[in-house]
Write a structure and sequence with these properties.
mainly beta, Jelly Rolls, nine-stranded antiparallel β-sheet, seven-stranded antiparallel β-sheet
């Protein structure tokens, strides 16, 4: 058993001050405690989180435990990057894994994404995921849900989806381009198109297990999940020296620096794209040094860095050529 973090796509690129935003898929097998965030998950009758057990049949180590109708609590991964989470309006979401219900009750363990600032009675205000619930007479239902604006919910019901003590597989998918929420529990599948425009306001910063309750009875459920894959945010920070944002520092960026050489008082929103990499709103030797230190660097490498003097000669030659072009154009007028 091992833990990996796999980047399967960088999608929905947005212009940000710190760089570009996309998403990655993260795989967690709980072979060791991943150090997920915990809030009120082991008090007031709640007792869930990392567990060195094997109820799901996936090997030692899983997440889960006892959920209760006595309070809110959660155990989840912080999915933000550089303080930025996921957005229902732009981010495609996917999660899958294994689970098992050992003890069934009316309390609803939730697995999915939510906003920690929108925690409320029952289901978080911004939440997308799978809800597991015993409805009586030996029936265990799964509910694929999307909750927005503190309680406005859309649900897809999987009737008789679980057998007590028998492990199952599950998946959750969200497509922002179509508003389609879909999922599976073993061979059962279901989907719903979300038409409520408030869904696009949802933001998520946690993925994991949330204790949802709807009464103050002493009812409990015992549920575990393991071998989980989920979408998390990824912010690609700007590469120092990459003026045009193509994720590599090369001649094209040197040309931009040359064309703006010795300019000062640059517009803060345009300065980086003009060759100001140190934030002094000017293009000068300091920026050429930064470019030299990152020459040929990409988002995943920093190879073949030349001496700063080499780049200074390059920039100087380009500035000279640029000035000559400007002078010829002026004489032609």
């Amino acid at each position: 058993m091992y833990k990996t973090i796999t980047m399967i796509c960088i999608c929905g690129i947005l212009a940000l001050g710190a760089g570009a935003m996309g998403a990655i898929q993260v795989y967690e097998d709980f072979a060791t405690d991943p150090g997920w965030l915990e809030q009120d998950n082991r008090i007031n009758g709640l007792d869930f989180g990392f567990s060195n057990t094997n109820n799901t049949g996936q090997g030692a180590g899983e997440a889960g435990g006892v959920f209760s109708n006595t309070g809110n609590g959660y155990y989840g991964a912080d999915i933000t990057s550089a303080g930025v989470g996921l957005f229902a309006a732009t981010d495609t979401l996917h999660a899958e894994g294994h689970g098992v219900t050992i003890v069934g009750g009316s309390v609803s363990p939730h697995m999915g994404w939510w906003d920690r600032d929108q925690v409320m009675l029952g289901t978080p205000g911004h939440w997308l995921g799978l809800d597991i619930q015993y409805i009586g007479d030996g029936h265990y239902n799964g509910y694929l849900g999307f909750t927005t604006d503190m309680g406005n919910s859309t649900w897809v019901i999987f009737e008789d989806a679980f057998t007590l003590g028998v492990p199952f597989t599950w998946s959750i998918d969200w497509d922002p381009s179509t508003g389609l929420l879909s999922g599976t529990i073993d061979s059962n599948s279901g989907s719903q198109t979300i038409t409520d425009p408030r869904a696009l306001n949802a933001e998520f910063d946690i993925f994991g297990m949330y204790n949802g309750y709807f009464s103050h009875s002493d009812d409990t459920s015992t549920v575990y999940m393991d071998s989980v894959e989920y979408t998390a945010a990824l912010v690609l920070l700007d590469i120092p020296g990459d003026a045009n944002g193509d994720r590599i520092v090369n001649d094209a960026d040197a040309s931009i620096v040359a064309s703006n050489w010795q300019k000062t008082g640059l517009d803060p929103e345009e300065a980086w794209g003009m060759g100001d990499f140190n934030g002094d709103f000017a293009v000068n030797d300091a920026d050429a040094t930064i470019m030299a230190a990152n020459w040929s660097a990409t988002s995943s490498s920093a190879a073949s860095v030349p001496e700063p003097s080499t780049l200074f000669l390059l920039v100087a030659a380009m500035v000279t050529a640029w000035i000559a072009v400007v002078q010829r154009r002026a004489r032609a007028l």
